[in-house]
Specification:
- This protein is globular.
- The chain folds into 2 domains: about 5-95 and about 295-325, NAD(P)-binding Rossmann-like Domain (Rossmann fold, 3-Layer(aba) Sandwich); about 100-285, Rossmann fold (3-Layer(aba) Sandwich).
- The chain is about 35% helix and about 15% strand.
- It has about 325 residues and is an alpha/beta fold.
- The termini are close together.
- It has helices at about 10-20, 35-40, 60-65, 80-85, 100-115, 120-125, 130-135, 160-170, 185-190, 195-205, 225-230, 245-255, 295-310, and strands at about 5, 25, 45-50, 70, 90-95, 150-155, 175-180, 190-195, 205-210, 235, 260-265, 280-285.
- The strands form 2 sheets. A 7-stranded parallel beta sheet has the order 8-7-6-9-10-11-12, sandwiched between helices.
- It is found in: Cytoplasm.
- InterPro entries: D-isomer_2-hydroxyacid_DH (IPR050223), D-isomer_2_OHA_DH_cat_dom (IPR006139), D-isomer_DH_CS (IPR029753), D-isomer_DH_CS1 (IPR029752), D-isomer_DH_NAD-bd (IPR006140), Glyoxylate_reductase_GyaR (IPR023519), NAD(P)-bd_dom_sf (IPR036291).
Length: about 325
């Protein structure tokens, strides 16, 4: 049987599927695998299941002469040198679709929690401060921002961006979007309007980032872009942390260029930024956009099905580097 190494424990449904077709080894620590250990583990493996936290590059490929496929347990794959993998005939897969709804739901969790100051309210109540102040209700207590009927601007209009838009319809919102190209059919279906990025930032009450991390999207939201936003606007990032210039965001929050932010991703992870994390108008989460039982089990199953298809000489269902089939046929022979 071919050998597969999994760099973190994934839901058991995926591992059970793989054990029927592979010799499976799992790094069972909660902490990410040290680089030197990963370099050792890949020496004899035919397949590798990776997380976003692992950098899969030329050094890894050099250490893994038998490696034929890398299955990334994520929809994004900016942690993998896909070009180098393709050159070597190594297949790369990801896990789209199965986490779309969970991630879109979480964008809305951040949006609503930030707009209505939920974390502040929870802290105020839980700490006993509400009781100590002795004020049961006040017309100006913890005022937030309306959501229903407002304008949402979605930057990146792929699967997740469109799922965010579908939910916005239930809130009676005007939907703006920016992407590399217009999508007329989706515009018609969702009642969405295309805008250049600058216009979207100027017009939106809520800006949701849902783009992949590429050379073009790296720090696409910086000081100039934040200054274009409304002072009452809220920024939500469920994309990648490096899409936003963190220093510029801190400055925007400190100087009141925007009203708040909801963040699930950061420039480095795990992450701590004392100044950013001190703002009451920022809602923070540790990259848990897809963290539902259903989504994570769906991701595990898709990882397994990609590897099993490859083993059977079939093109994996969610192959990222489709041109690799010209370099090497699927399969371990």
């Amino acid at each position: 049987m071919p050998k597969v190494f999994i760099t973190r424990a994934i839901p058991e449904n995926g591992i059970e599927l793989l054990r029927e077709h592979f010799q499976v080894e799992v790094w069972d620590s909660e902490h990410e695998i040290p680089r030197e250990v990963l370099l050792q583990k890949v020496r004899e493996v035919d397949a590798l299941v990776t997380m976003l936290s692992e950098r899969i590059d030329k050094e890894i490929f050099d250490a893994a002469p038998k490696l034929r496929i890398v299955a990334n347990y994520a929809v994004g794959y900016d942690n993998i040198d896909v070009e180098e993998a393709t050159r070597r005939g190594i297949y790369v897969t990801n896990t789209p679709d199965v986490l779309t709804d969970a991630t879109a739901d979480f964008a809305w969790t951040l949006l609503l929690a930030t707009a209505r100051r939920l974390i502040e309210a929870d802290r105020f109540t839980r700490s006993g401060e509400w009781k100590r102040e002795g004020i049961a209700w006040h017309p100006l207590m913890l005022l937030g921002y309306d959501v229903y009927g407002k304008t949402i601007g979605i930057v990146g209009f792929g699967r997740i961006g469109q799922a965010v838009a579908k939910r916005a319809r239930g809130f009676g919102m005007r939907i703006l979007y920016y992407s590399r190209g217009r999508k007329p059919e989706v515009e018609k279906e969702l009642g969405a309007e295309f805008r250049p990025l600058d216009e979207l930032l100027r017009e939106s009450d809520f800006v949701v980032l849902a783009v992949p991390l590429t050379k073009e999207t790296y720090r696409m939201i910086g000081e100039r872009e934040l200054k274009l936003m409304r002072k009452t606007a809220i920024l939500v990032n469920i994309a990648r942390g490096k899409v936003v210039d963190t220093e510029a965001l801190v400055k925007a929050l400190k100087e009141g260029w925007i009203a708040g932010a909801g963040l699930d991703v950061y420039e480095e992870e795990p992450y701590y930024n004392e100044e950013l994390f001190s703002f009451d108008n920022v809602v923070l989460a540790p990259h848990i956009g897809s963290a539902t039982y259903g989504a994570r089990e769906g991701m595990a199953e898709l990882v397994a099905r990609n590897l099993i298809a490859f083993k059977n000489g079939e093109v994996p269902p969610t192959l990222v580097n489709k041109e690799v089939v010209k370099v090497r046929k699927p399969g371990f022979e």
